[in-house]
C-alpha cells in the first residue's frame, strides 16, 4: 500500500509508493558526451567575467587577477539589478515592480572542478565563509527582503551548457518569495502551538529513530526527510537552534564543509553524478520592526540546506497539486547513503 | 530590462524579461518523436490494460475489445489504491494516511499516431465528456475530496507512454496548490465581492495584449504572471466553479478552443512537451462565487532550477504579451 506523508512544516503531502519502490540502480544517470566551451571561471580568465564584488585571495594579489581562492562576480545574465528604486504599482488588477535586486555567482574554486566533494575541506570552508559574507553585505541594502543561495548542478537541474566549473548563485529579491513565506509561517504556527522549534523537534525525532539519518557530526545532521518529494532528497541542519545562516559559528562551518563533502560524494557515487539543486533556507532580512513582521523568527525558524536530486520528471500531477510522488522511501535512501 | 509581476491569485512573483525576450527559435526545441512498438493503449491491445471502467464505443462492441474512440482504464501502476478505508495517523511529529485514491488513464484515441492537437473537434468533445463522466462518477465516493485531471505530453513533461492520454487522480485530501488558489481567490472575493478570474477576463478583453482566441463560451490567453514561457490558460467566460457542470454545448466550445490552442502551440514551438491541468473546485465544498474553473497549459521549454525551487519565484524569458502575439499570428 502506498503511503501518504505530510511535511510537518508546510503541510505538503507526498505519496511514497512503496510498491513501486526502486533501487538506486534504477535511477543511475547516463551522461552523453557533454562538450564544454572555454571556461570564463577558471583562474587566468578573470577578465571574462564582470568585475568581482568580493574575493578571498592570496596576499599581494590584485582584484580581477589570478591568486584567488573564492571569487564572487555579478551574473552575466542578471535579471535583477541593485541600481533602481523599489516602485510597486498597479496595472489594472495586476501588480508590477522594477527589478531591484542582485544576482551573483560564487566561483567556488580557481580550478575547473565540477562537484563540491572534489574540493578539499578547507576550500569548502572558504566557500561557506564567502557566502556568509555576501549575504551579510546584501542584507545591508534596505530595499532587499530575501536572499536565496542555491546551486544548479547538471543540465537538468538548470546548470549551464557552456561550463561545469563549480559555482553557486545568490539572488536577492525585493519581496519575500512565496515558498519561503510558507515555511516561515508553518514554523511560526508550530511554535505558537508548542512553544518549540519544529526543526529542533524534527532533529530530535530523527536522532531517536535513526532510520532516516544519513550522517551526524558534533554540530550538523544530514537526513532523508520523512516527506521527501524526490528520491534521495537530503536535508542538512545545524543541531543547535539558529534561525539565520549568517550566524553560523566557526566549528559549524568546519562540520558543514565535512558533511557537504561526504554527503555529495555519496550521492554522486550512488547515482553516477546526478543533476541536483541545493538551496539554503534561512531567515529573511529583517530591516523593519513592524508588528508581526517575523519578530519571533529567532525562536521559531531554523536554517537548513535542502539538496534535491533531479532524477525523476516533475509532471502535471505535481504541478497541479503540489503533491509529489516519490518512488524511493526515504528510509531506504538513507540506508543506502549511509552504507555507500 | 525585466519586470517583477505578482500573481493576483496566489501572490507568487515572477521576473519577466521585457526588452530582451526569448523568441520561439531561441529555445532548444526538439519535436517529440514517436517510436511506436507494442503499445497497451492501441486498438487491439485492450487486454494489456486493466479492465476498462468506462468508454465511448460502438453500440455493438464489447468492453475491452476494439470499437472504442475514448477509453478509461485504471492505471496499471497506480500511485494510489482504490481499496481500503482511509486511515489517518501520527508518528511522533509526523502525519500520514494510507494511499487511498483512484488513478485512471483516459486514452483519448485508439490511433497511436495522433496527438491531442490532431484530434478532430468531435473527438476532443468526446474526450471532454469522458472527463466529465469520470468526475461525476468518482465524486460519489465519499472518501474523495479532490479530482485532478491532467495531461503530460512528451517525455520531459513526464509522459511515460507516448500514446496520447490524460490522467485522473482522485485524492482523499485537497492538495496544497489547490488550497493556495482557493485561499487567494477567496481573499480577493472578500475584498472586492467579485471573482478574481472574472475580473481577469474583463481586463484581458479590454487590454487585448495577451488574448489568443475567444469563442462564444471560452477565452484563451497568456496570463499576466506566467511561470513558464508560452504558458496559456483557457477559461469559461461565464462564472462557474466546477468543471463537472459543463454542459454538452459548452463541451463543444471547449473542444474548439482547446484544439485551437494546442495546434497553435504545436506549430509555434514545434510540438513542445507540455503539462495541462484542469483547475476546479474540490468535491463537496461550499466554494461557489469565489472560484472559477479553468485549464492551465504549461509548455516545458526550460529547466526549473534551484532559484525557482527554493523561492517559488519564477524567471520567465518570454513576456506573455510577446508569447500571445506569436500564438495569435501562427
Q: What does this 3D model show about the protein?
A:
- By secondary structure, chain A is an alpha+beta fold.
- Chain A has eight helices and 15 strands.
- Chain A has a single domain, classed as HIT-like (HIT family, subunit A).
- A ten-stranded antiparallel β-sheet of chain A has the order 3-4-7-9-8-13-14-12-11-10, with helices on both faces.
- In chain A, strand 10 (213-216) and strand 11 (220-223) form a beta hairpin.
- In chain A, helix 2 (121-139) crosses helix 5 (250-271).
- In chain B, the strands form three sheets. In chain B, strands 3-4-7-9-8-13-14-12-11-10 form a ten-stranded antiparallel β-sheet, sandwiched between helices. In chain B, strands 1-2-15 form a three-stranded mixed β-sheet. A two-stranded antiparallel ribbon of chain B has the order 5-6.
- The model of chain B has no long low-confidence stretch (mean pLDDT 92).
- Chain B has a single domain (2-329), classed as HIT-like (HIT family, subunit A).
- In chain B, helix 1 crosses helix 4.
- Chains A and B meet through strand 1, strand 6, strand 8, strand 9 and helix 3 of A and strand 1, strand 2, strand 6, strand 8 and strand 9 of B.
Amino acid at each position: 500500500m502506498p503511503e501518504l506523508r505530510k511535511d510537518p512544516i508546510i503541510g505538503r503531502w507526498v505519496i511514497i509508493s512503496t510498491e513501486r519502490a526502486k533501487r538506486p540502480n534504477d535511477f543511475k544517470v547516463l551522461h552523453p558526451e557533454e562538450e564544454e566551451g572555454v571556461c570564463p571561471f577558471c583562474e587566468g580568465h578573470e577578465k571574462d567575467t564582470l568585475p568581482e564584488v568580493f574575493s578571498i585571495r592570496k596576499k599581494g594579489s590584485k582584484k580581477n587577477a589570478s591568486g584567488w581562492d573564492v571569487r564572487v562576480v555579478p551574473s552575466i545574465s542578471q535579471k535583477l539589478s541593485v541600481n533602481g528604486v523599489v516602485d510597486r504599482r498597479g496595472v489594472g488588477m495586476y501588480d508590477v515592480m522594477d527589478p531591484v535586486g542582485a544576482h551573483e555567482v560564487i566561483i567556488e574554486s580557481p580550478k575547473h572542478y565540477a562537484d563540491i566533494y572534489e574540493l578539499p575541506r578547507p576550500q569548502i570552508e572558504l566557500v561557506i565563509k564567502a557566502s556568509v559574507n555576501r549575504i551579510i553585505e546584501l542584507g545591508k541594502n534596505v530595499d532587499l527582503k530575501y536572499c536565496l543561495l542555491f546551486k544548479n548542478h547538471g543540465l537538468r537541474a538548470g546548470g549551464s551548457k557552456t561550463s561545469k566549473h563549480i559555482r553557486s548563485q545568490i539572488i536577492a529579491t525585493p519581496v519575500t518569495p512565496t515558498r519561503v513565506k510558507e515555511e516561515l509561517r508553518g514554523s511560526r504556527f508550530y511554535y505558537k502551538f508548542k512553544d518549540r522549534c519544529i526543526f529542533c523537534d524534527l532533529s530530535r525525532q530523527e536522532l531517536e529513530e535513526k532510520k532516516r539519518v544519513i550522517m551526524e557530526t558534533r554540530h550538523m545532521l544530514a537526513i532523508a526527510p520523512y516527506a521527501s518529494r524526490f528520491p534521495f532528497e537530503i536535508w542538512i541542519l545545524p543541531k543547535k537552534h539558529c534561525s539565520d545562516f549568517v550566524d553560523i559559528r566557526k566549528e559549524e562551518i568546519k562540520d558543514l564543509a565535512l558533511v557537504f563533502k561526504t554527503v555529495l560524494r555519496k550521492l554522486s557515487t550512488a547515482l553516477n553524478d546526478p543533476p541536483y539543486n541545493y538551496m539554503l533556507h534561512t531567515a529573511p532580512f529583517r530591516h523593519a520592526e513592524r508588528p508581526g513582521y517575523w519578530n519571533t523568527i529567532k525562536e521559531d525558524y531554523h536554517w537548513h540546506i535542502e539538496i534535491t536530486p533531479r532524477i525523476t520528471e516533475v509532471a502535471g500531477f505535481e504541478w497541479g497539486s503540489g503533491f509529489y510522488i516519490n518512488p524511493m522511501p526515504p528510509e531506504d535512501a538513507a540506508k543506502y547513503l549511509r552504507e555507500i | 530590462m525585466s519586470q517583477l509581476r505578482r500573481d493576483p491569485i496566489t501572490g507568487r512573483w515572477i521576473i519577466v524579461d521585457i526588452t530582451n525576450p526569448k523568441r520561439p527559435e531561441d529555445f532548444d526545441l526538439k519535436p517529440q518523436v514517436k517510436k511506436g512498438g507494442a503499445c497497451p493503449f492501441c486498438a487491439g491491445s485492450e487486454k494489456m490494460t486493466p479492465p476498462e471502467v468506462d468508454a465511448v464505443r460502438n453500440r455493438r462492441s464489447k468492453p475491452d475489445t476494439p470499437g472504442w474512440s475514448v477509453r478509461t482504464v485504471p492505471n496499471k501502476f497506480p500511485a494510489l489504491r482504490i481499496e481500503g478505508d482511509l486511515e489517518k495517523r501520527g508518528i511522533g511529529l509526523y502525519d500520514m494516511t494510507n494511499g487511498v485514491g483512484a488513478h485512471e488513464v483516459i486514452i483519448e484515441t485508439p490511433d497511436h499516431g495522433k496527438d491531442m492537437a490532431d484530434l478532430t473537434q468531435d473527438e476532443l468533445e468526446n474526450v471532454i465528456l469522458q472527463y466529465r463522466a469520470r468526475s461525476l462518477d468518482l465524486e460519489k465516493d465519499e472518501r474523495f475530496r479532490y479530482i485532478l485531471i491532467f495531461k503530460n505530453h512528451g517525455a520531459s513533461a513526464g509522459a511515460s507512454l507516448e500514446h496520447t492520454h490524460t490522467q485522473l487522480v482522485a485524492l482523499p485530501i485537497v492538495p496544497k496548490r489547490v488550497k493556495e488558489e482557493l485561499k487567494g481567490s477567496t481573499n480577493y472575493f472578500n475584498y472586492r465581492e467579485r471573482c478574481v478570474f472574472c475580473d481577469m477576463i474583463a481586463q484581458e478583453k479590454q487590454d487585448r495584449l495577451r488574448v489568443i482566441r475567444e469563442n462564444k463560451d471560452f477565452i484563451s490567453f497568456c496570463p499576466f504572471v506566467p511561470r513558464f514561457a508560452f504558458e496559456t490558460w483557457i477559461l469559461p467566460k461565464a462564472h462557474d466553479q466546477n468543471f463537472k457542470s459543463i454542459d454538452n454545448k459548452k463541451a463543444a466550445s471547449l473542444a474548439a478552443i482547446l484544439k485551437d490552442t494546442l495546434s497553435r502551440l504545436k506549430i509555434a514551438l514545434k510540438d513542445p512537451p507540455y503539462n495541462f491541468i484542469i483547475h476546479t473546485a474540490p468535491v463537496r465544498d461550499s466554494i461557489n462565487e469565489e472560484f472559477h474553473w479553468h485549464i492551465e497549459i504549461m509548455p516545458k521549454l526550460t529547466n526549473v532550477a534551484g532559484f525557482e525551487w527554493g523561492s517559488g519565484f519564477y524567471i520567465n524569458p518570454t513576456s506573455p504579451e510577446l508569447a500571445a502575439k506569436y500564438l495569435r499570428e501562427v
